[in-house]
Structures are given as C-alpha cells and as structure tokens.
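Hi R.,

As promised on Friday, here is the backbone we talked about, encoded as structure tokens. Could you run it through your design pipeline when you get a chance and send me back a sequence?
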C-alpha cells in the first residue's frame, strides 16, 4: 500500500482522497497532507485519518510519506514536482502539468534522474468509452481520420470570485483551459497524436475576471484538422467526435459512443453503445500506485504530458497574437 501525502485540500483534493481512502483495493492510502487554509480542512482531515502538517516541506520531510498528490495551483507544480523528486518521492500531479513546456520538461527530467514515478491526472483516459475509441481506431474502423472535434464546458466560473486563484488571469490565461479544456487537449492527443499548429480565439464576454469563451482551430501532425471549444460559463458538456473516410465515431458525455458508417458495400450498420460509469479518480490513483510499486507503467506517457503543455503554451501565444502558432 503506497502511503501518500495530499497537497491541497480544496474541493478537488477532497475528491481525490475520498475516491480511494476507504478502498482496500486502491493500492494507495493518504496518511498526511497540507493545505493553504488548514482551519477549513482540519475536521475533514481528521475524518479521513490524515495528519495535517504545516506546509509542503513538512509533507516531503515526513518519513511515512512515500508519494505526494498535488491538487495545487498550476503555477506551483513545477517547483513542487522537482522538490519531491529530489527526495525520492513519487508524484501524482493534477492538470495542467505546468504552465510552460520548459517547466514540464524540467519536471520530467527531475523524475527520471531520481527514478521516481511521475503521473498526470487526465482521468478521462480511464473511461471505458475511451478504450473502445482507441481500439476502433487501431482496427481502422474509421478509415483515414480527416477531422476531430472536442468540446468541454461547464458553469463553474460563475463562482470564481476576487482573490480565488482560478479567477487570476495568470493562472487561467485562456479561461476554462486550465480547469477543463486541457483534459480535451489530452484526449485529442491520446486519440489523434501530436498537434502541429493552432489558431485561437479567446474572449471575456460575460465574466469579470477571465475568458469565458475559448475556441481553437488546429491541425495534427498527421494532417487531420481539429475544432475545439471550452466555455467556462455554459452547461456541463463533454463531447469528442472523429470523422473518417469510413465513418464517424462520437463520444457523447462520458458513457456513450455513437458510430455512423459511410454508406457503401460492407459498411456495416450504425450503432449506439452505453458504457458503465467508472470512478475515474480511483482508477488513475490506483494506476499511479501500481506504477510506483513496480507494476505496469502509468498509462499516460510523459512525452504526451509535455506535448499537452506545448499545445497549451502555443494556444496562449496564438490567442494573444491573433495568428497561427506552430506547436514546438
């Protein structure tokens, strides 16, 4: 059982802890942690059996803590990951991985030098529907994929107030990209491979602090094109669709796939399939614990984690300049 420290006990830190804390099969148990507002977390930490420590350095110095789980502001990730690696601690870090490609590369280099596991929390990779999309792509069921579409939105930004880190444009330079959109970028990389270039429109139409509307037109290294949007003040939406020469495949929500074939000889029939709900937070933390124990590698290659941040960084530049940016 991997003994972990939780760093950040806001809403998402608590979701991560509660997904595994009372499961004997999770392979991970939280034993200690810290947060920026300890008085607000003291009772909850006690209920979870977590020793509340006085900061990140104290968590890293705790001899019982073998790994840390970071549910902290994006801009803190690089320094926190590197500090943990230097002490031989495994790290699970929430998305976005970092705010710049150079920082992401430094994090990976630190973990590799230390021989520790570094895992990034893109939980939608663990959906059964995602695995089915990957399988069908590998089998050539769509033919040559010409275009991909991704959309992830939600209304959470309505609650972002002055003084909250998510309401800070330096932490949320493209509105919903940090909180939501980066998940879809990772999904598109997972399904379609690396991006080559992006053009972005990102605007603050209603919100007082950060952009509420972000849209991207992109091109993959394969030559396929991409349309993507993330709205931080709209109904909850998750949709990813692939359009190929043999048919289209669309994930509607996180538990349904719809296939539509191109008419013709041997095309087969259209179908809709529903998949069971899965605790994807427990799944990703269990995969992290298994990798730390010497089992299967965590199923998000670090090269793809770095590339996701290269795309994010290129999107920021493209939005600011009003031109297309190559993804380095």
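Update: got your reply. Pasting your designed sequence below so it's all in one thread:
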């Amino acid at each position: 059982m991997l003994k972990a420290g939780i760093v950040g006990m806001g809403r998402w830190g608590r979701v991560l802890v509660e997904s595994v804390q009372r499961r004997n099969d999770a392979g991970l148990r939280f034993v200690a942690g810290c947060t920026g507002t300890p008085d607000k977390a003291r009772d909850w930490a006690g209920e979870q059996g977590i020793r509340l420590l006085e900061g990140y350095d104290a968590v890293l110095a705790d001899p019982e803590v073998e790994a840390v789980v970071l549910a902290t502001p994006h801009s803190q990730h690089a320094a926190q990951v590197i500090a943990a690696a230097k002490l031989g601690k495994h790290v699970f870090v929430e998305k976005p991985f970092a705010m710049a490609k150079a920082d992401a590369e430094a994090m990976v280099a630190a973990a590799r030098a230390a021989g520790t596991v570094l895992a990034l929390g893109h939980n939608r990779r663990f959906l059964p529907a995602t695995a089915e999309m990957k399988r069908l792509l590998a089998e050539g069921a769509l033919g040559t994929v010409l275009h991909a579409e991704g959309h992830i939105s939600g209304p959470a930004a309505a609650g972002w107030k002055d003084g909250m880190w998510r309401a800070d444009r330096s932490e949320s330079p493209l509105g919903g990209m940090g909180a939501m959109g980066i998940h879809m970028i990772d999904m598109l990389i997972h399904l379609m491979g690396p991006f080559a270039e992006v053009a972005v429109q990102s605007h603050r139409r209603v919100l007082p602090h950060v952009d509420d509307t972000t849209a991207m037109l992109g091109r993959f290294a394969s030559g396929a094109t991409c349309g993507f949007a993330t709205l931080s003040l709209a109904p909850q939406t998750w949709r990813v669709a692939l359009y190929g020469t043999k048919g289209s495949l669309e994930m509607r929500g996180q538990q349904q796939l719809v296939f539509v074939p191109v008419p013709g000889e041997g095309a087969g029939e259209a179908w809709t399939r529903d998949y069971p709900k899965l605790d994807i937070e427990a799944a990703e933390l269990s995969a992290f614990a298994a990798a730390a124990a010497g089992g299967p590698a965590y199923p998000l290659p670090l090269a793809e984690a770095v590339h996701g941040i290269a795309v994010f960084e290129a999107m920021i530049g493209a939005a600011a300049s009003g031109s297309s940016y190559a993804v380095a």
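One thing I noticed while checking it: The first strand starts at residue 2 and ends at 7.

Thanks again,
M.
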